[in-house]
Every structure is written in C-alpha cells, then in structure tokens.
Specification:
alpha+beta, Dna Ligase, domain 1, 4-stranded antiparallel beta sheet, 4-stranded parallel beta sheet, Aldehyde Oxidoreductase, domain 3, single chain
C-alpha cells in the first residue's frame, strides 16, 4: 500500500477501510481504539477471545493460546471480508498481527522477530548476538532445584518469566536466599493454568539476568520502513530499584540532558534495526548509567493500559488514531506531539485485599494541572499487587507548562486519594 500524503487529515481515510483490532478481554485499550476508528470513519472488526455479543455481530472469536489456528481463522474470515490492516492492542496480539498481516499481504513486521521480542530470553540472546549492550543472563529450567543454582549467580540479579509484561513476575534478588524464594514464587505464578496457557513453551523456563542500575526512561515511537520516529520520550522519576518494579509516573518531555536523549534515541534505533522491525508503534524501556544506555524491554506495540491518554498530537489526534492512520497507509512522519508537558500516574496497589471503599476523588481532580482521574477497579474487587498481579487501581493524567509541574500535580492528586482495602 502506498503512503497517503494526507497526514493528520481525517479525509485522507476512506469509509471503505477496514481494520482488524486484536485485543484480549483484559485490555484497557478497547474504548480508545473504537473511538478513534469512529472518528476516522474506519470500519473496525474486533478479534478477541471473549465470547461476547460483539463476536456475533461482525466480530471475530480469537484463541490467543493457539496462535497458528488463530492466524488461519483470520485468513479464512478475510477471504469473505478483507482487511486493510491488522492492529494489536497489547502484547498478546503482536505476533498474531504480524503473522496474519503477512498471510494477507499487508505491511507487517517479521513474525519470527516479533516472537523473539516477546520472549525475554530470545530477546536478550539476540541482542547479545547483535553486539548490543545487554546484561548477562541465562535460562533456568522450571523444574530446576533453585538451591543448586543459588550459589552460582551474581548478585544482584533479576528473575523474570519469559513471556509476561508489565513487570508481572519480575523480582530482584540480592542473595541466594532471596533467589530461592523468588524462584519458587515466580514458578507458582506461571504454572497457574490461565497464565501458563499464554506462554506455551516459554513457560518451561525462567530468565535470570544481572541487575542493571540507573534511571529508567521509556520511548514511544513509530516505525516507518524501519526508521524510528520519536513520538515521546518519557522520564520515570520514581526510582525502580526492586524487589518489584511497579511503574508509577511517566512524564514527557524528558528532563535528561540533550546528549543523553540523543544516545537514548540512537540505542532505540539500533535495537529496532537489530530485530528487523519495520512498521507500526514501538515501546522501549531503557536504563541510563555511567556505563551507557541499556534496553530493558522492547515491544512492537504502543504504551499499555490507559497511559496513551497522556499523549496528544497534531489536530488533537490520539495515539490510537495515529496508529490506525499509519496502519492504513497514511504518512504520519510529520506528526508531532503537542507542545505542553504531560504525564500519567499508574496508581499502584499498596497491598492485596478487597477494595472496600475509596475517597478523595473530588480533591484529586481539583488539583491544578490534573485533567482526569480514572479508577479502573470496581468496589468489591479483589486486588492483587505485583509481582503476582498485573494491573493498577487506576490512572491520573496531568498537563502543564513544564515537566516538573506535571510531576508535582500527579503526586499531589495521588496524595488526595484514599483506598480502604480489606485483607483477603
């Protein structure tokens, strides 16, 4: 498909365009993508594993635990109702989107490389083979006796599942005793049936690597024929030291010196090129220390959760609208983020239990610079914090003239919120 020159112009898309959006029932992103498609006049077919009325009204039932079968189902569906693009909402749809797009003759990333990126072990091993700076690490069979291994490791190290995202199951260990306990804990997590089904063969081992110190940042970008377009560079002002790595605040633009920012962009481009990624959104997590810039994680999809609400582009476009435009052949290389500083706070779960009550919403929303406070957990729901859990209490969004003002607004709004969590 040749790029359209109508970047940022809704009229650049035809009403006849149809997109298959791949998403699990757990995603926060459904509403944002559906709204963006409606605003652009794009027909949207939702591919999901949930047996919902939507699946019987032009939707497509997808079994993410059988990716090959799901790709065949998409191919068969498209023979009667062709798609102009296949877009994943989250990690679990990235490989399927690449494979289905390849079968349908649509622009795509190499499926084998997307599979490697999703696998923490394969990603690290490919980075090392490509000469990219990466912490030393190795696979550990899930049936290993951790006490036999504990004395052989370097400390501190980080133990993680090969296939989960959002820091779920990721634990820093500082000594042999902590390693043994963490190994048993992560093994129990990934052997839960609903989680193991997601990992397949990746659930047969864990990945352990040397801990990388430093400040963490996140790059939100778009790939155009393999060339990285920076949409936003987020600082993470809260130190992520472990033992768990629950992310909280993202603020853009970055306050790091220009030279450091240039190195971040260069490193991100290098790792994208090493994996042969060509098109679509990319989200990269990096750490900066005196030795250099290290890629911690790489994903061929956009920022997760509701965090995309922190970003606005030319003519008020959302990130989801930008993704759909590019997937449908519109040239978005000239699109820029708004000039204002912005940020999001993912509200952490302080401890496990049942959410009994909450207060302070009005005061939090009244904080200068705060635009929206969303609590995504209903009263009465059981809360599971990291490392076993994989969600947040909600999200706070702020905008202001400068990054430090955004950060201060997010912190103040969070301080106004009170959560009554009864032990389960």
């Amino acid at each position: 498909m040749q790029p359209d020159t109508g970047a940022g112009d809704p009229s650049a898309l035809s009403d006849s365009k149809r997109v298959l959006l791949l998403m699990s029932s757990r995603t926060y992103r459904a509403g944002s993508f559906i709204k963006a498609a409606e605003e652009l006049g794009v027909s949207l077919t939702v591919g999901t594993e949930a047996e919902t009325p939507l699946a019987g009204q032009g939707g497509l039932h997808i079994n993410f635990s059988d990716p090959e079968g799901a790709a065949e189902a998409i191919q068969a569906f498209a023979s009667n109702l062709p798609f102009d693009a296949v877009v994943p909402a989250e990690d679990d749809g990235t490989w399927l989107a690449a494979e289905a797009s390849m079968r349908l003759g649509l622009p795509h990333n190499p499926p084998e490389m997307v599979a490697a990126v999703r696998d923490k072990a394969a990603m690290r091993e490919h980075m090392a083979e490509s000469g990219l700076p990466a912490p030393e690490g190795f696979r550990i069979d899930i049936d290993s006796d951790p006490e036999d291994l504990a004395g052989e490791l370097s400390y501190p190290s980080v133990l993680k599942p090969r296939f989960l995202s959002g820091s779920q199951g990721v634990i820093r260990v500082n000594n042999p005793g902590e390693f043994v306990f963490a190994f048993q804990r992560v093994r129990r997590l990934i052997q839960q049936p609903e989680i193991r089904n997601l990992g397949g063969q990746m659930g047969n081992s864990l990945w352990c690597e040397v801990y990388v110190p430093g400040n963490e940042v996140a790059v939100e970008g778009m790939l155009n024929d393999g060339i990285l377009q920076i949409l936003a560079l987020f600082d993470k002002p809260d130190p992520l030291l472990g033992p768990y790595f629950e992310e909280t605040i993202y603020v853009t633009p970055s306050r790091h010196p220009q030279g450091i920012q240039v190195k971040i962009v260069e490193t991100t481009q290098q790792v994208v090129q090493a994996f042969g990624l060509k098109t679509g959104p990319v989200h990269v997590e990096l750490r900066i220390n005196p030795e250099g810039v290290y890629v911690i994680d790489l994903a061929p999809r956009s920022i997760g959760g509701l965090c995309s609400k922190a970003l606005r582009f030319d003519q008020g476009d959302s990130l989801e609208a930008l993704i759909l435009r590019q997937a449908l052949g519109v040239d978005v290389r000239g699109v820029r983020r708004e000039s204002a500083a912005s940020g999001v706070m993912m509200i952490p779960i302080p401890h496990g239990g049942r959410l009994n009550a909450m207060a302070g919403m009005q005061a939090a929303r009244a904080v200068s610079g705060v635009e929206e406070v969303i609590i995504s957990v209903p009263i009465g729901e059981e809360l599971v914090p990291l490392p076993e859990g994989g969600s947040y209490l909600g999200f706070i969004f702020a905008r202001s003239d400068a990054p430090h003002q955004v950060e201060a607004a997010l912190r103040q709004a969070h301080a106004e919120l009170e959560f009554d969590i009864q032990p389960g």
